[in-house]
Amino acid sequence: MHQATVFLLSALLPLSLSSERDPFAWLYGWSQRYHYNSLQADAKAGACPDACDCPPSFPVAMYCDGRGLTAVPAVPAHVKYLYLQNNAITAVPDSALVNATNLIWLMMHHNQLRSENIGEKAFSKLEQLERLYLQHNNMTSLPPNLPRTLRDLRADHNGIEKVTPAELEGMDNLTILYLHDNAVTDMSTSLKGLKSLTLLDISNNKLKKIPEALPEHLHQLYLESNSIESLPVDFLSHFTQLQYIRMAHNQLTDKGIPPNTFNVTGLVELDLSFNKLERIPPVSTTLRHLYLQANQIKEFTLGSFCSVVDVTNFSRLQTLRLDGNEIGRQDIPSESLLCLRQASSIEV
């Protein structure tokens, strides 16, 4: 019994000392304890490429960013976090990531990737991938067969023209989707199945209408700088968590906004600036920030903020921007002091 106790203590002692020396031992200690021998045995196959850094203190990461690379280097199988941003990589052939099946993060933003140079199965084996950054490349479409495990997909600042349902189908875990600054004209029903999506940014594209079947759990919806002229009836009725809507720099008119579209509880911020509105649309008394600058508004309608004006009924609006319209401060009725009592900034 005494010998067994000594053996157990001697086995645990190096681990406890290691934890005291390195405060991050909890993060990679399992890798050292359980995979050290296998990595050593396969050291040649798992060697870090000369152009990259693989720090011993974080052996599951491989840093190849900003190295002037024109091709994807060989990736050891144990790597989970791969940083390839700020290079000149033009292609991802099917064979490029065939061994990188443990990747969780893949950063390939600010390269020169072209859609025709991305293999049909280039990403299909990455069955643990959660974060994929492809922004600031030269793609005209999303890569095919993306992992359905993705939680964060960023493909903004490309030349993407269309998003099809097949490209996003089955991405039940996707919560963040950045597609802004592309050339998208049509999204069809590609967003329908993204039941976990909370942030969608498709601003600065060429959309003429609101995408169909927007996910009901959206928290932030950004549609600025498109060519949207109208909104569908009951546009916001099915959302349960939406708080931020930005639709500045579109072609919205009074006729294109159904009555009481924005008079829904839950909204915190609404940006309709730089459109073609002539009236202030009715909003909920719970709205906090409203941006209507640079429209064609000719009248300050207090009823847009408060249907009833008295001591107990008032708007929670804190910020109201009406500058760049056809009204001045003299057009604001005196009753506004009661209705907009919480407003710290009103610009006309």
TrEMBL record:
Which Gene Ontology cellular component annotation is one that this UniProt entry carries? extracellular space
Q: Which Pfam families match?
A: LRR_8, LRRNT
Q: Does the keyword Signal apply?
A: yes
- Tell me where the signal peptide lies: 1-18
SMART domains according to UniProt: LRR_BAC, LRR_SD22, LRR_TYP, LRRNT
Q: Which UniProt keywords apply?
A: Disulfide bond, Extracellular matrix, Glycoprotein, Leucine-rich repeat, Proteoglycan, Repeat, Secreted, Signal
Q: Where are the transmembrane segments?
A: none
Chief localization class? secreted
| LRRNT domain segment(s) | 47-81
User: What Gene3D superfamilies does the database record attribute to this sequence?
Assistant: Ribonuclease Inhibitor (3.80.10.10)
Secreted as a keyword of this entry, yes or no, is yes
> Source organism's superkingdom?
Eukaryota
Q: What does the UniProt entry say about where the protein is found?
A: Secreted, Extracellular space, Extracellular matrix
What is the documented function of this protein? Affects the rate of fibrils formation. May have a primary role in collagen fibrillogenesis.
Q: How does it assemble?
A: Binds to type I and type II collagen.
**Protein family per UniProt:** Belongs to the small leucine-rich proteoglycan (SLRP) family. SLRP class II subfamily.
Q: What's the protein here called? A: Fibromodulin
